Amino acid sequence: MAEDSASIHQQNESANQDETVRSSNFLRQIIERDLADKPTQGLVTRFPPEPNGYLHIGHAKSICVNFGLAADYQGHCHLRFDDTNPEKESQAFITAIADDIQWLGFDWHGDIRYASDYFDQLHDFAIYLIKQNLAYVCHLSPDQAREYRGTLTKPGVNSPHRDRSIEENLALFAQMTAGDFDDGACVLRAKIDMSAPNINLRDPIIYRIRKVTHHQTGDKWCVYPTYDFTHGQSDAIEGISHSICTLEFEDHKPLYNWFLAQLPVPCQPRQFEFSRLNLNYTVTSKRKLKQLVDDGVVSGWDDPRMPTISGMRRRGYSPVSIKNFCQATGVTRVNGVVDMAMLEFAVREYHNVHAPRAMVVINPLKLVISNYPVDQVEQLDAPNHPQDITMGSRKVPFTQTIYIDKADFRESANKKFKRLVTGKKVRLRNAYVIMAESVVKDDSGEVIEVHASYDPDTIGQDPVDGIKPKGVIQWVSVTEGKPITIREYDRLFSHESPEKASEDSGDSDFMSCINPDSYCEHTECFAEPSLLDASAEQVFQFEREGYFVADRHDFSRDQPVFNKTIGLRDSWPKQEQG
Ligand code: ATP
Ligand code: MG
Question: Which of 46, 80, 286, 544 is catalytic?
Fold first, then answer.
């Protein structure tokens, strides 16, 4: 009860918070000003993932920002795959990314777009730059190029190939394109300024040779444009008005603008940056997530412990709670780390209102009600949600022998233990008040059975003797209940900042703070029979245990598997931090 009223309070709070967050999204002010200045030019944003892995919670934030702003200002948001590194990309990632976006509840404007749709145009742009004497073919090796580039404190040095004639460059680029050179033999570079303080402007590479098949364009090309040469021009081709990205692209903005200024592009998009979402106790880098998958630390990209959208989905997080969380983190230019507890709060907040209740016993202990008729099966009414009668009710079969949870019984206990104790009463959820009378033990002295009596006049009312039981526990009929498997998950990392841990001590080290106890399977659980009718991905509150989801892939009537989404309250010890 306390939990429910607390949550209503929290909902009010989060409604107020919504308003604050709306106004704290600095991009809104920019967009509102721009729309007021140029009312005929609508807002067009894009979400530009590289299809080299699954999307994670950080991408969810970017999706919410880009699709959310477009929706709020009657604009459009494109989905464009930034597919300029064919060797690391695949159609499987494209499909998974598109699925994730739709599952979150967003839809892109028009078809899925690909930067590779513009490879012809980008190639023409490259030739255009050569003809303007603004690009040249360079034969420096990668090591030499690094030498020539200079450092933050030292200007770069011009490449010996910088002054090739336009004709020679056109011929060499044509040869590159025709496949006359090996991978890495030469590159096409923009001719900007080797002494520019911003290293991105020191004659950046715009085309390189990669003799690999592309998932979209097949073997048409053996030269591919770089990300920097692709992104802004693709934005311009698509008529993107506000190109929103994360802060690490701030240093690339002068280059983004330089290309747009030099090339005959149809429009001039503008880039705006906000800070990345970082979460403690997890990593948000596709490369690191890929390592977890490749090394078999997790069962796949959608392992319920992964911070991927598909992992969170399989874990039972609702799209609404992920969106509420992203919204609550605000859009700023200040880098920070968000507490995982904030995401978990959003997950509980949603399920507390929407998840139907059910009874499951995870660590079963048999209890025999000696004064209950042996073969009787009584169908008791149980509301699906204690605060929401519109969610209806279901029948739960009650019988002489039931399971209760081992943790809910003690032979003797002090007053703080509000569950079943020998000689004391407890209420069985949605059923009778019982009193424990005796126990049966095995050879090692462990209690294997409890004998109790019930009070038949206690459905929906207190015992007539006026002695009100202190606690309520869940139960499942031994004969009518069904065995289920529960997969329980905990945080994947035991260190608050695994990425930092790795920076401190070599790159692969984030693997050293993997939580060894992040997964366990309970195969001897019992559930009320109605749970077999669940559909995959349906979330329940198993009373007093937490929220659980019918596994997306492994749930069936014959082998019901539920994943623990999250406990009823935050149980992660605070002192673990640091
Ligand atoms: P990763 O480092 O995980 O590979 P990325 O930035 O390289 O991420 P992209 O596929 O290029 O991945 O990202 C698509 C969009 O998502 C980009 O606009 C990027 O800025 C945004 N994005 C990626 N990570 C985050 C994050 N943690 N918070 C907010 N936005 C993010
Ligand atoms: Mg990227």
Answer: 286
| Contact assessment for residue 561 and residue 549, using Cβ atoms and an 8 Å cutoff | no
Instruction: Answer yes or no: are the C-beta atoms of 122 and 225 closer than 8 Å.
Output: yes
Residue 344 appears among annotated catalytic residues: no
User: Pairing mode, if any, of strands 546-550 and 360-361?
Assistant: unpaired
What pLDDT does 575 receive?
38
List, as one string, the DSSP characters of 76-90: EEEEEE----GGG--
CB 194 within 8 A of CB 150: yes
**366 in Cβ contact with 308 (< 8 Å):** no
Sheet holding 76-81, edge to edge: 44-47, 76-81, 113-114
CA–CA separation, 22 vs 378, rounded Å?
Answer: 53
Please check whether the domain covering 358-477 is classified as CATH 2.40.240.10: yes
CA of 128 to the centre of ligand 2 (A): 27
**pLDDT recorded at residue 292:** 97
147 vs 269: CA distance, rounded Å: 34
Q: With a cut of 70, which residues of the chain have pLDDT below it? A: 1-24, 501-508, 571-578
| Domain residue limits, the chain | 19-116+231-347, 118-226, 358-477
Nearest in space to 533 (alpha carbons), one of 377, 403, 358, 390: 358
Strand 425-428 with 433-441, pairing: antiparallel
Classify burial at 205, counting beta carbons within 10 Å of its beta carbon; exposed 0-12, middle 13-18, buried 19 or more.
middle
To test the ligand 1 pocket, which listed residue (59, 502, 507) has its Cβ within 8 A of the most ligand atoms?
59
Q: What is the pLDDT of residue 573?
A: 56
Are 51 and 286 spatial neighbours (Cβ–Cβ below 8 Å)? no
For the beta carbon of residue 310, count every other beta carbon within 10 angstroms. Answer: 22
**CATH 3.30.43.10 corresponds to the domain 19-116+231-347:** no
Tell me if 59 CB under 6 Å of ligand 1: yes
- List, in sequence order, every beta strand (DSSP E) within 87-204: 113-114, 135-138, 187-190
Q: Please tell me if the CB atom of residue 48 comes closer than 6 angstroms to any atom of ligand 1.
A: yes
Residue 402 beta carbon below 6 angstroms from any ligand 1 atom = no
What is residue 13's predicted lDDT score, i.e. its pLDDT? 47
Instruction: State the closest ligand 1 atom to the C-alpha of 61, by its place in the atom list counted from 1.
Output: 29
Classify domain 118-226 by CATH architecture: Alpha-Beta Complex (3.90)
Is 251 in contact with 259 (CB distance < 8 Å)? no
How is residue 457 written in tokens?
A: 């006049």
Integer Cα distance of 213 and 57 in angstroms? 30
pLDDT at 503: 59
If one counts every other C-beta atom within 10 angstroms of the C-beta of residue 155, the result is: 14
